[in-house]
Amino acid sequence: MNVQVIVRPDGTPLWFSRATPGRTHDLTAARAHGIVRACLTRQILVLADRAYQGAGATVRTPYYGHRDLPEHYQRYNRDHARLRAPGERAFARLKSWRLLRRARCSTSRIGRTVAAVHTLLTCQYTG
Question: How many other β-carbons are positioned within 10 Å of the β-carbon of residue 22?
């Protein structure tokens, strides 16, 4: 399954999308859910992984290079990874739920499960 997640800079999950089949590319799913357009319209800076290259002016992805990236690109990639780390931890928390790792059912059913996990995680962050 592919679930898009919007996370605050401190790593607190704000929103989970409905689940789409796992074969759906991340950028395609983000566009289908309106995330890319909403961020462009509101001029919200987004730090994303390489799967989102070409998403738009407000989406920042790391530079890609097989070997010899210039030092300033390497520095940018390190800073980018450091700033994305809290968001990645939010994904790790979601993936730590065994129920979601072993799910073998329809995407609509998984969507309800993800919504329930989001509610539980939100209670954890606020309580």
Answer: 9
The pLDDT confidence band at residue 6, using thresholds 50, 70 and 90, is: confident
Sign of the Cα torsion 41, 47, 52, 57 reads: positive
Full-model pTM: 0.77
Q: Which DSSP string corresponds to 39-61?
A: HHHHT--EE--GGGTTS-TTEE-
Question: Ramachandran region of residue 43, left (φ > 0), alpha (ψ -120 to 50) or beta?
Answer: left
Q: Give the separation between CA 126 and CA 70, rounded to whole angstroms.
A: 43
Containing 97, the helix (H) or strand (E) segment is: none
| E strand intervals along 28-111 | 46-47, 59-60
Handedness of CA 47, 40, 20, 121 (dihedral sign): positive
CB–CB of 56/36 below 8 Å? yes
CA separation, residue 84 to residues 38, 49, 69, 90 (Å): 20, 9, 20, 10
